[in-house]
Every structure is written in structure tokens, then in C-alpha cells.
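Notebook B, p. 112. Complex prediction, attempt 2.
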Amino acid sequence: MKPAALEINNLTKDFSVGLRGRKLRAVDGLDLTVGENEIFGLLGPNGSGKSTTIKILLGLLSASQGECRILGKSSQSASARLEVGYLPEAPYFYRYLTGRELVAFYATICGMRGAARKRAIEEVLDRVGIADAADRRVGTYSKGMLQRIGLAQALVHDPKFIVLDEPTAGVDPLGAAAIGEIILELKEQGKTVLVSSHLLTQLESLCDRVVILHKGRKVIEGNVDSLLLDETVEEIVVEGLKPSGRQALQAVVHEHGGHCRETSGSKRSLESIFMEAVQAPAEKEGSQT
Amino acid sequence: MIWERTAAIAANTFLEAVRQKFFNALLLLAIALVASARFFQQFDFGAGELKFIADFGFGALFVFGAVLSVFMTAQLFFNELENRTVQTLLAKPLHRIEFLVGKWLGGQLVVLVFVFVICFILAGILWWRESDLLGRLSVSEVGVRALVRYSDIFLYGFLQWVKFGVVSSITLFIASFSNTNLYTIVVAFFVLLVCQLQYIARDAYTATAEGLSRWLLTLIAWVFPNFQLFNVGERMVLLANDGLPIEVVLRITAYGVIYMVLFLALALLHFRRRQF
């Protein structure tokens, strides 16, 4: 049987606070399994233990109790991280390097050499859409570009398991949508993606499964579709209905034991309006050039 | 593979260091001081002038080299922590020993450039003054054709580089358990002072002290490297002295390397447990 992409058993992390060493529990007995080729959302408010969990699985923190395995290997071993790509929250990179130099540096650290390394660097820069700015110093990059170059360094060695900590934090909706597309592409390529965020609506359309953490504990875990489904309510979306027709429809629903809880015009999201407004002129310019 | 990752960290550290204003300012200041050595002394014919220039140059090399080793090592280490670039790095298949040794090597490369430039300038100044002095006095009058062993200036520079390597590894050891840059720098300078002056206490008290005091002094003498062993510049460089046999140079180098490895190992011991 193939090992799960990520297996966390009874994970607990205590931090010592103050001179007396009072214990602060950041993660409390967390059990979690992420299967291969899943997009898994790690959700929760600030301070819920998301980043601590991620740091433990990357070997940056040691667990007080429990264990964490990535593709069957202990997360504390450096060899386990050969198959892991990590985009930190609010990434900060060496400002004096160009984007290409930065990705090349991380590729070397991941053990890539020669022509394969060169090819992988060019491919990943192109894939995250930063090839045009690859020869600019990282210090001149905008927030969105930093996220993209961060993604490039996380993906350059073609890892099987990718950890993205708040990948869309501080990024505009266009950038967030682009990152979302890359995440979906990664799934198509058979990768497993663990994505942490407190921006729930962005993850709703991306994740196969999610876990919600609160005060270090797991409060909900499950398939996104089944979690979002409210079995007591059904939605009928109609178009071009006249007022008389609406009354008739309500009567039919009532006749069959139902109850129309709410009737209102359909609303678009502000995000979709923004995307339309910004993307349409950009596409028009693109077709003209 | 291990060496390539370590070399990548070292190269990146070197690049970061040489782009800092601190390194360039310190290098320029040291060059200016060594180059102006002649103007700081009462003019004196013969080896006296050359001795003064050599001593002045070696003094500048030690002071600025030590400042560079301590500040640079602490700053380069804490930059990684404060900017959180260490998190991205250690999330890669990188062992902590590779990170630590890479940082140390990068710093040592910077110090090597510094030592070489200062030795080169010092050799130039000595050559200029030696030519001037020998030009004024005929060979038959002085009895020699040269007053300075130029190759030994660089050999002495190498020994100082080894000493700075020990200073850097001590700084890295302190940084491995310290939480702030400032604390690391202050403690590292204190240790440097002890290493530089411990021979005075040892010479004064080991002969007279007994029991626990004697044990304590012996312990201090073992724990803190004796930097006085590296102060052999005058003997090496001026032809008026006998010079230093290569066996002694090798023994001093080995002494320094042992302490470097020891302090790096201690640094790793702490750094492996460090949480990010």
C-alpha cells in the first residue's frame, strides 16, 4: 500500500512562555491524513495552529508529542524534504539576487545540476508567469511578484508534495486567481497540495478536503462539497419569471409541502465584477498587440 | 552533494557580505590606515622604520579583521533569522550542518579577501620604504640587499586568517544559542579579549596558584584559545630576525583548526535544536 502524502498522528506542540516557562499549547493532539493528489485546505483563524503545524511538518519546529510523516518518511529528516516544495507566508528572499539567480540558488540546494537544472529554472519561471521579470533584482518586486517567485522556488525541483502557507495573502484578485490556477494545474499533474489560509472563499473552489483548526484543535474535517451542502434547503434558479409566475411557483412549492424561505434577485460577487473589469481590457489590449 | 549545497550557501553569504556597506567601509578604513602608517611615526633610518610600519600594519590587520569577523558573522547569521530566509532554506533538503558551515565559510571568504588586500598594501608600503632606505645606503654599508621577507607577509596573513576563523567560529557558537545580534557581538568581543590576554594571567598565576585556582586557570587556558601564539609577524617578516620555521607555522595552523572545528561542533549542537 502506498503511504499517504501526509500523515499526522497525535501532534502536540507546546511553547514555553515567560521566565517561569509556562506552557502555551499551539497544537493539541492533531490527527490528519492527506491522500495523494489531493488539494487539502488547512483553515482556521489567526493563532489556530496552522503555521505551527506546517513548521513541524517541514522540520523547522520539533513536536512536543506525536509524529508527522511525509510520503512515509519522518518529517524531521532532510531526505523527506526532497519531495516537498514550500511557499512561506509573506515570503522574504535575498533582495540582491535576481529572480533567476534566486531560483537557481534554491535549485542547487535541492540537488539539481547541469542542463536539467537550467531547463527546470526556465520552465518554472515561465509557469509562474515571471519570466519577463526574471533578470530584475528581487528587491524591486511587488508583493504579487514575490508570491510568484516564491512559488517558482517551491516548484523548481518538481516536488510531489507542495505546502503553501497563505499563498494569496496580500495579493490582488487577479494574482490570487492566477495562483489558484497554478494549484489546480499541480493537481492535474498528480501533485498533492496542502494550502493554508484564513480566506475561506478563495479555498472553497480549490480544495477537495479541508480541516478547520481552532485553538490548536481540529474542529471540522471533511470533503468540501459535503461540508457545504445544506440538506434541508434546495435551490431553484429561474430566469425571466414574471410576478404572477413567481406566485404560481410559490403555490406549487407550498402544495408539495415545501416553503419558499427567500425570493430575491441573484447577486454577483464583487470579485467577479473586479475580474471582469480588469481582465476584459487586458485581453482586448492583448488581442490588439 | 553535501559540499555543493554548502558551497552554494557560502557563495550566497559571500555575495551578501561584499554588498554590505559595512565591509567596504571597514576595508577602506583599514587600507587608509595601513597606507598612512609612515606618517604616524618619528622618522628613523633603517629597520626601525620598517618595524614600525610592519607593527602598525599588523595591528590594523588584527583590529579590523577581528571587528569584521565578529560583526560579519553575527550579522550574516541573524539576517537569515530576522528576514526568515532561514525558514525557506531549512524547508529544503538541507542539513543544518550544511547551513552553519556554509555561513561560516562565506564569512571566511570575506575575511580572506580583507586579509589579502591588507597584506598586499602592507607589502607595497614596506617595499617602497625598503627601496628608499636601501637606495640611500649602499649595500656595502648595510651589508644586505633586502630587509623584508615579502612571502612571509602573506604567510603571516594566512595565520591571521586562521585566527579570524577561530573568532568567527566562536561568534557562530554564541549566535547559535543567542537571541539577539547585539548579545552575540558583545559576548564574542569579551571572549576575544580573554583569548588575546589569557597568556598574561596564565604566566602570572600558574606558577604560584595551587589547588582549585590552578585547575581553574588550566581549564581557562584549554577552553579559550591562546591568540598570542599567532603574534609572530615581526619575527616572520623582518629579515633582521630569524624567521619562523615552517613546522611552527603548521603547528599554529593545526592549533587554530582544532579550535575552529571544536567551536563549530558546539555551534551545531545548539543549532540543531534551534526552533524557527
